Amino acid sequence: MASVREEWRVYWYLPIVAAFANVATVIHIYTLGPFMAPLQAEFDWSRAQISSAITVSNGLNAGLGIFVGFLIDKYGPRRIGLIGICVMAAAFASVSTATGGYGNWIFLWFLISLGAAWTQPTIWTSAVSSRFDAGRGFAIAVTICGTSFAATLLPLIATEAIIEFGWRWAYIAIAAGYFILAFPLNYLFFRGAADGPARGAKADESQTPQVLVGMELKEAFASLTFYRLGFAGLLFAFCAMASIVHFVPILTDRGLSPVEAASIAGLIGLSSLIGRFITGYLLDRFRPERVALVAFGLPVLAALLLLYGDGPVAYSAAAIVIGASLGGEYDIIIYLTTRHFGLKRFGAIFATVLVFLTAATATGPLTAGAIFDRFGSYEYYLWLTIPMVTISALLAGTLPKAPEEYNRGGGH
Fold it and tell me: What angle do CA 70, 147, 233 make, to 5 degrees?
């Protein structure tokens, strides 16, 4: 069995090129904000109408993602990923043709949902997971970190592109930039074990794709572990997404200025990136269920800091805790899925788990907003998060040990 160092020596490039491709999963989300003002000015739309695009793309993507998951298992991630890069680039560029009709706007974001489904994280992480065993946790963290860097850079890139080219050409420029960066790298270097030998493989290596082991979909759906993992992700994502969306309003309600609140909220992004790498490191060295127990339970501390803390120091600590926990969430869910169900049907199984998370991210912010509208305070929402994330931590943290045949590496 290869060691962590040996895996990284041979396949060091794979998580990096996958991270570039994985930017497609958020390119439409993190660029929408800068486009709102010019879209409003040209079409006289409300911000709710513009924002409904995300609801359309994310909602449809959840269902389409399961279908794409089956295709990943059948044809391998390489083919699906290369098609997806092309589809997403074309779909994103097509938004430049918006006519001002709301039906046309929804249709264009239906096309975005197709691109998002064909570039979902399942594709990139399935290939990376098939090449890394002992170092899988950190490799997944590197793959997913593409979205963290995108969260920081895409709003700036979009803003500069709009100023330089206008909003229509900005959509085309960003799409072209993504394609030029992601497609050649992934065409040359992106191959999972199911896709055949890696580029530059020794001549005596078998030229047939590796047979991956794992549960069939029916077995996974009959397993209590599947539902515990899905609901753990649902409860955590419900609270985490609501906390991110409403973090600035929570702080301004406490008397901070919008600038102070936004500055503190910026700590969430930075700590999530750091948290992602730390989580990946720990997953490779300790039992992953124990890592999940701690990471998923951290928001309890954040809620208490926001409820009882007073001043920028306490609020900054809450932001760091939220970010650190959020940074590990996706990595942990992916990692536990590979360990408990194997890689044979990872595409379909993880795509189904993603439905739980998508439902949570769609309803969490709405619920927090409704609680505030009803009671005039976020206090009741913050109290609600404590039992929800505690249950989430216990569901994931007390899972039984993964089957030995899927669990050969790391600190297990």
Answer: 60
Whole-Å CA distances, 63 to 40, 123, 185: 30, 16, 29
Asked if residue 137 lies in contact with residue 288, where contact means CB atoms within 8 angstroms, the answer is: yes
CA distance 164 to 296: 42
Phi, psi of 210 (to 5 degrees): -75, 140
Report the SS3 class of residue 342: strand
Q: What are phi and psi of 214, to 5 degrees?
A: 155, 175
Residue of 13, 201, 185, 198 lying closest to 82 (CA atoms) = 185
**Beta carbons of 306 and 157 less than 8 angstroms apart:** no
Domains and CATH numbers, the chain: 4-195 (1.20.1250.20), 217-403 (1.20.1250.20)
246: closest CA among 231, 229, 265?
265
Predicted confidence (pLDDT) per residue in 282-319, tens digit: 998 899 999 999 999 999 999 999 999 888 999 999 99
Per-residue pLDDT reduced to its tens digit, 146-186: 887 887 788 888 888 999 999 999 999 999 999 999 999 99
Closest by Cα among 309, 276, 316, 279 to 294: 279
Residue 303, φ and ψ in degrees, nearest 5: -60, -40
Q: By three-state DSSP, how is residue 166 classified?
A: coil
Query: Helix H segments across 121-246?
Result: 121-131, 136-165, 167-189, 217-221, 224-245
- Residue 143 neighbours by CB under 8 Å, 6+ apart: 15, 18, 19, 22, 121, 124, 125, 128
